[in-house]
Amino acid sequence: MWLLTAIFSLLTTNLIFTRALGTSTMMAAAKNSSRLPVLSLLMTVFSVLSCLGVQLLLYPLGLAGMLTYPYYLGLPLLYVAVIGVIYLAALIVTRIAFRSKMSGIKKYIHLSAFNCAVMGTLYLAFSPDGLAPSTEHSLELFGLLSGDLREPMTAVLFGMQEGLGFLLASLMLSAVWERLHDAEVPAAFRGLPAVMVFIGLISMAVYAITV
Amino acid sequence: MDSDRAYKDGLFRHNAVLSEGMVIAPLVVCCDTMRKSLLLSLGFAVITILTVLIGSFYPKRLPYAVRIILYALTASALYIPAALLCEYISPSTYAALSSMQLPGMGTVPGAAFMYLPLLSVNSFIVLHSELHFYHYKRTAMLGVLIAHAAGFALAACLLGALREILAYGSIFGYAVDMPLVMKGLGTPWGGFVLLGLLAGIHRYLFRKKQEA
Fold this sequence. Notes:
The complex is a heterodimer of chains A (about 210) and B (about 210).
Chain A: H1 2-12, H2 15-19, H3 23-30, H4 36-58, H5 75-97, H6 102-113, H7 116-125, H8 152-180, H9 192-210
Helix pairs in contact in A: 3-8, 4-5, 4-6, 4-7, 4-8, 5-6, 7-8
Chain B: H1 3-13, H2 24-30, H3 34-55, H4 64-89, H5 91-97, E1 100-102, E2 106-108, H6 123-131, H7 138-168, E3 170-171, E4 174-175, H8 188-211
Antiparallel strand pairs in B: 1-2, 3-4
């Protein structure tokens, strides 16, 4: 029962199916099922660490004023700076710990760092005042319906939930990837067009179960 | 490289959205009317063209990872004038650009606020600047960039017009006599389905042309 609830929660709060965030990255991930776990894991790590980093900067270090008008126009600078630091740290750690596999892993780190999914997670977690509904701050997966994102642990859980949602969406797409590229699909719709229609249909189903 | 061919490819054959599947999220969520599509295209053009142009002056001796961070930071800084310009041109459309339909919540103002700033990390900037654009000389690169931005605008406007007619029964806010409107096409899932159909039509047309 818990598993069903968890999958339901991951679907209804899914960045890709409800907000289209990270679609291009997911398509890149689903092309090769062997690299899917690595990319999804890295995306989750980036989401968690960037949520934690921004939380620390906004609340304990007193930059929460950036969430108010007109300072929120500078939020992308803050978010990109945090992601950039984590990106560099990830490259350094990988270079030290996995020197022989560095060239293979580097491209995944690059793909996982700067994308709409990670930055979108930050925007959902730390939205400018008055610009997002508070119900968006839901952590259904962990049984916390309205977690306080000023708490570091809540920020970590939020990042983890979004990363796991990305993994679930990628798994669903990789399961049908071959079929969407099959010769039975009309040539004009084979590949990208079929993938987009497929995501649209899953998204419609998610809307239907949520309404 | 053949610049003329590259201009045409950027606009039509290798259209960033319809052919390559890039920058999908803002289109799927925000482009449900023509006005919003035009404003988003303007924001995309300002952020992307200026960032790639400024980025071409960054020293190549800097490590790749540092250059990518600098490109994203430049784009984030350019988002501020781009947002102010969009708001100055049409305050009502700028405000509408921030609203979206969420499951179980209807149209929520401010829920799509993030899509314009998210253009700071679009794949033109963090991926294709190094892979594609910086292989050209600067003047040719500017032309190719403008062609790609026009290609994005073309896809955005096609999608926006189609969704506005089918979902709201209007175009540019003027009512169109439609026997049936499908409001669901204004949601992200409607955006995905229609964008997929447009991508299929795009591929069909260019396949025919290639065969001819």
